[in-house]
């Protein structure tokens, strides 16, 4: 019933890992195959496309569902429903960034320092052009088809491109002067398919499975004990997704709270909780965390 477009190339490995962790293993005859299957009721066919192509093939109705980068959804302007977002990148559990970069010796410290006529190379001409226009810069936007760093300095003075670690920029003697936005992977659906009750049920089930698989390894459960008198301050310091778990067994004045947050935010959050009056904080791993709340 549901057709799925998955990314080929930079996002491919993480996409396959996410689907496998959700119990939705993609089977292919070889790693080079552009067709696959998933043993899941309602999933009819799977195909692989470049991430930049997926918003268009989903928006056009050629596929019901797709996984791609938020940057390509914005760049293409395709009409799709964003069902879920996952803030991971190729090598980490953090989103990637779309940035404006210049040679290390360039005097600019921000986009406002680039004068009219500046040549900017990018694989994202629509995003780049809007960003520069909003900044009041009359730039010449040069479409790049990969290896954008190589366009500087002969073909361009600056570049708009994605970075994850920044290693490639440093190796090419470039530096970031503006972060345009952060981007993660997005599960997108064709609007007509999402409006169909039967298809939407399958899509939402797939989305829940994927989110549960992503949240588990990258998040932790914090169990916090606090005195009732300190509860207002401790509650404010708890993660956004938290609840009251109970009270102490022998001390009714002791309140137990629990919350889920990203693993990378644990050290800072614990410091804030203890400063707010928490008696102690316990961190626990999460296996699979399922939810009926989209984006929760």
Automatic annotation (TrEMBL):
Function as written in the Swiss-Prot or TrEMBL entry: Catalyzes the condensation of ATP and 5-phosphoribose 1-diphosphate to form N'-(5'-phosphoribosyl)-ATP (PR-ATP). Has a crucial role in the pathway because the rate of histidine biosynthesis seems to be controlled primarily by regulation of HisG enzymatic activity.
Pathway as given in its UniProt record: Amino-acid biosynthesis; L-histidine biosynthesis; L-histidine from 5-phospho-alpha-D-ribose 1-diphosphate: step 1/9
Keyword hit for Disulfide bond: no
Catalysis: reaction(s): 1-(5-phospho-beta-D-ribosyl)-ATP + diphosphate = 5-phospho-alpha-D-ribose 1-diphosphate + ATP
Gene name of the encoded protein: hisG_1
Keywords: Amino-acid biosynthesis, ATP-binding, Cytoplasm, Glycosyltransferase, Histidine biosynthesis, Nucleotide-binding, Transferase
Protein's name according to its UniProt entry: ATP phosphoribosyltransferase
EC main group: transferase
One Pfam family recorded for the sequence: HisG
Primary location group: cytoplasm
EC number: 2.4.2.17
An example Gene Ontology molecular-function term: glycosyltransferase activity
